[in-house]
Each structure stands twice: as structure tokens, then as C-alpha cells.
Design brief:
Distance between the termini of chain A: 33 Å
Radius of gyration of chain A: 13 Å
Shape of chain B: globular
Order of helices and strands of chain A: EEEEEEEEEEE
Number of strands of chain A: 11
Radius of gyration of chain B: 14 Å
Low-confidence stretches of chain B: none
Mean pLDDT of chain B: 91
Largest sheet of chain B: 6 strands, mixed
Oligomer: heterodimer
Mean pLDDT of chain A: 92
Order of helices and strands of chain B: EEEEEEEEEEEE
Distance between the termini of chain B: 38 Å
Structural class of chain A: mainly beta
Chain lengths: ~110, ~120
């Protein structure tokens, strides 16, 4: 079984709808991250969380919110989806030390019509 | 300013050729970490290597090798005798010691196509 899972894997929605993307991990890592990937732009950080009580904004947090329900679960919400939020979304986890690599989930492809 | 620059957007090579993917980074930290990830057509991100700023030794892993040069702020990735399975988008990333969140700064990626 995958260490970092994301649901759904694909989602098509309409402008104005509320969407939640979920991430679960079995790696036991404290830190979790949400990124979006756009063609030609690489990956950009939306939010990250050190632990259940510590959530921080990343580079592009506007229009998004997150919830860290447990050490293993980190959800990303789009309160009112808009077309330019169409992207590939990745969840990632890492251990505490700054030198540790991040492990990525399989990604969620979101299309906002 | 972009902290990680991958100037090569797309590269095509014929199978068995060698190919080098360039990565140039920018940081004021003396302690930092560099990473390479591979994103095959299936979409997942696969960790390839981590290098810290105090270790300039080059690394070789099978057909893959990495050349880290602090003098030119570069961390280039070479694939020797490329294979079709190497076709993917490759990302270079930087993590700075002063950034307690372990935020990664990713380059925009280089799309490699290996032609059989």
C-alpha cells in the first residue's frame, strides 16, 4: 500500500463549488504539505503543517484553506473554486529535520469549469 | 527572483546518448540542501537524491550521476546511456536551513524525452 494517499485522484467541478482534497499518510511523519503544479511553473507551496496545532501559509495560499485533523491526515479545501485553480495538486510529508526529503502522494487532478 | 532555475524546458535525446540536466540555485544560506525528483508520465514524484551544502563530492548511482559545484551554484544531473524509461520531467529543488518549515523551492522542471 502507498505511504501517502490522496483522494480523489481526479475531480471535475464547477465554478463556485466547495471542494475538499484529502491526504493520508502512514509514514508517521510530523510535517505535511500541499503543493499545486501548473505547466511551466513547477510546484508551488500552498500550505504546510508541522503538527496538528501548527499550520502555516505557503507561497500561494489565497483561495485555499487546510485542516490537519490528525497527524496522518491533512485536507485542502477550495471554498469557492475558480477556473484558475485547475491544476495538479500534491500532498507531501517529511520528517522533522530540514535535510529530509519530502515524499509525495500520487496527486489529484482538479478541473474547475 | 527564482531560487531554482532549470533553463532547459525540454530535451530530446536518442536512446543510449548521455544527457545532462542543468540546475542553478540561489541562496544566501551557508547551509542548504538540494534535491532531484523524477516525474514519469504516470504523474507521481519520485525522490532521486539529496545533497547538502557541505558535501561537494559528486555522486554516482548506476547510470545517474550528480555534479554539485558551489562555485557556480549548480547541481547538474547526468544520465548516461539514456533509456526510454528515463523519459520524464525532472525537478531540482532547494531547501534552506533558515527555513524551519523545510519549504522546498522547486525549479520549473525539464522534460526529457528519450527516443528509441
Amino acid at each position: 500500500d502507498a505511504d501517502v494517499t490522496q483522494t480523489p485522484r481526479n475531480r471535475i467541478t464547477k465554478t463556485g463549488k466547495r471542494i475538499m482534497l484529502e491526504c493520508s499518510q502512514t509514514k508517521g511523519h510530523d510535517r505535511m504539505y500541499w503543493y499545486r503544479q501548473d505547466p511551466g511553473l513547477g510546484l508551488r507551496l500552498i500550505y504546510y503543517s508541522f503538527d496538528v496545532k501548527d499550520i502555516n501559509k505557503g507561497e500561494i495560499s489565497d483561495g485555499y484553506s487546510v485542516s490537519r485533523q490528525a497527524q496522518a491526515k491533512f485536507s485542502l479545501s477550495l471554498e469557492s473554486a475558480i477556473p484558475n485553480q485547475t491544476a495538479l495538486y500534491f500532498c507531501a510529508t517529511s520528517e522533522r529535520a530540514i535535510y529530509n526529503e519530502q515524499f509525495f502522494g500520487p496527486g489529484t487532478r482538479l478541473t474547475v469549469l | 527572483a527564482q531560487k531554482v532555475t532549470q533553463a532547459q524546458t525540454e530535451i530530446s535525446v536518442v536512446e543510449k546518448e548521455d544527457v545532462t540536466l542543468d540546475c542553478v540555485y540561489e541562496t544566501r544560506d551557508t547551509t542548504y540542501y538540494l534535491f532531484w525528483y523524477k516525474q514519469p508520465p504516470s504523474g507521481e514524484l519520485v525522490f532521486l537524491i539529496r545533497r547538502n551544502s557541505f558535501d561537494e563530492q559528486n555522486e554516482i548511482s548506476g547510470r545517474y550521476s550528480w555534479n554539485f559545484q558551489k562555485s557556480t551554484s549548480s547541481f547538474n544531473f547526468t544520465i548516461t546511456a539514456s533509456q526510454v524509461v528515463d523519459s520524464a520531467v525532472y525537478f531540482c529543488a532547494l531547501s534552506e536551513a533558515r527555513n524551519t518549515g523545510n519549504q522546498f523551492y522547486f525549479g520549473t522542471g525539464t522534460s526529457l524525452t528519450v527516443i528509441p
